[in-house]
Amino acid sequence: MNISIDGDRCIGSGQCALTAPGVFTQDDDGFSELLPGRADGGGDPMVREAARACPVQAISVED
Ligand code: SF4
């Protein structure tokens, strides 16, 4: 799995960090970023749910 976040789309709603807090966090400005070493999702089953929860489809998940 490879996760990417489109920083141009992200509006900082925080849904990803709420849904999968083991993978996503928010930077000082509130925008989404991946926790260190978690670009592969770390096997977290909530990653896809977090991508679906994003209101602006800023999160891409590839197998
Ligand atoms: S859910 Fe989407 S818009 Fe909200 S912080 Fe995460 S990536 Fe950004």
From TrEMBL:
Its cofactor is [3Fe-4S] cluster. Signal peptide: none annotated. Keywords: 3Fe-4S, Electron transport, Iron, Iron-sulfur, Metal-binding, Transport. It holds the Pfam family Fer4_15. Residues 1-29 form the 4Fe-4S ferredoxin-type domain. Ferredoxins are iron-sulfur proteins that transfer electrons in a wide variety of metabolic reactions. PANTHER family: FERREDOXIN. This is Ferredoxin. It comes from Streptomyces noboritoensis.
